[in-house]
Design goal:
Elements lengths: L7 H23 L2 H4 L9 H17 L8 H19 L4 H17 L4 H26 L3 H4 L9 H15 L8 H5 L3 H29 L5 H78 L4 E6 L4 E4 L1 H7 L3 H5 L3 H4 L5 H13 L5 E8 L5 E12 L5 E10 L1 H49 L6 H25 L2 H12 L5 H6 L7 H9 L1
Antiparallel strand pairs: 1-2, 1-5, 3-4, 4-5
Helix pairs in contact: 1-3, 1-8, 3-4, 4-5, 5-6, 6-8, 10-11, 16-17, 17-18
Amino acid sequence: MLALPTVKALTIVSLLSITAGALVLVGQMFHLVFLQHTGLGTRSVQITMALCFALLGAALFLTQLPTKKYTGSAFRLLICLVIIAGILSVVQAPGTGISFVIFGMALLGFTADKRVFLTISQYLLHVVTAMSALSIIGYLYDLPLFYTLDFAGPMAFFPAVLLFLLSITTSLLHPKVGMAGLFTGNLVGNIMARRVLLLLIIVGAAFGAVKIVSGRYLLISQQTGLSLLVISFIALGLALIWYTARWLNKFDRRRKDAEGEVLVINEELEKRVADRSAKLMKLLEKLRESESKFKTAFEHSAVGMALVSLKGKWLKVNKRMCDLVGYREQELLTMSFQDLTHPDDQLKHRDVIDKALNNKNNAYKVEKRYICKNGTAVWVSINIATVTNKTGGPLYFVSQFEDITERKKAEQSLKTAYKQIQDHVNSIQDIAWKQSHLVRSPLANLKGLTEILSHDPADKETLNYIQAELERLDTALIEMAEDACTDGARAVIVTKRILGSPFKELYLKAPTIEKGPKGRQAGAQA
């Protein structure tokens, strides 16, 4: 069974139906006369009609309870029992029995999913409403034609009232279908239908009662009463038309006022939309200009540029980047930066990407090697910046690539030259240590001979030793000069060593010492 809306009035009426049927059944079981004569009909059909009202009320009450597993089956069983009991009542009370059968068929139609069955069921309920309403009017105005069929007995008053209430409240389960939709909507026609219907019912009941009372007590003649009734209905109809017209005019004025306000609001809205559209167009122009400038700067940049996804895929690359690695643009767009990165530099770039994602406001730089299409390695300096959305979430990376291969080669050459210089320095230190030993030895001897000569200045043998040591010292200095300096520097060193000595005149008269072994030999001879 489909889920149905909750109708408070239906709950009350269904409980009333269950109570009325149960009271009659209890009166029959315990022979309680005041419960048997409830107006449900003659004695012979009281049990079946009471059972019908009890079962029908129980079925309608189930529709107001939460839907459970066996609710639908219980509902169908109760409706089938109502139809059977209604068929059994047709013989004695045709109007009431037929009403129960029609009511049961309408409720069975509510269990179907198709709208056509729902519509038919709703109109079957309207048939029950019409039959019971005619019976009630017949009883109120003493018109047996309305509640009596030619071939059977009349429909009792109280069953007619209960059936009327049950059919009206049941039709509210589907208020948008059938006649119920005319009186339950929120449109102007629905509101007017409810107001007019209520006034017609009240006026009709009031004038009918006046006519019945006046006819019963012979207050006025039948012709006069009929004339007064017609005049009253005409006057009341005019009053009703006037009242309805006033209400509709008032509603129409409100509608026109609302339309005027809507027009004003629309004009203001259109003006705002026009202003904002103009601002938007300006923003779009600026955006296009900005995009054009960015595209120009991107395509014609002197360094490689690329947009890279958060997963490392190339989204857009410029020509300089393609030239740098030797791939075409379409080839690069099918690859990721990991595909180009040298195996030894994979972890280095991954660390920089993690830092850029964790701190999106900073730009990061990394130097690493890319493997070109031809298999060669090229050193690149990469600047990485993160582009974010309005909430600060990362979208993609903007990267700049600069070829630093020549710089890396120069750095390597500098490292090699520095190592060579360091090796030369170490070699010079070793030579200086050896030469210092050669110089200190004759100096020590000269110091001792000078000490001896100070006691005996005429000692020619000592002078000969001094001259020999000076020559040996001179030879050592010349060798040092040849190892570490040019010929000019050698001459400066020799000059500084000799000019201030007691053998100045002897040195100036000596022949020039030439470079090489012959020079050394000539110096020794001098």
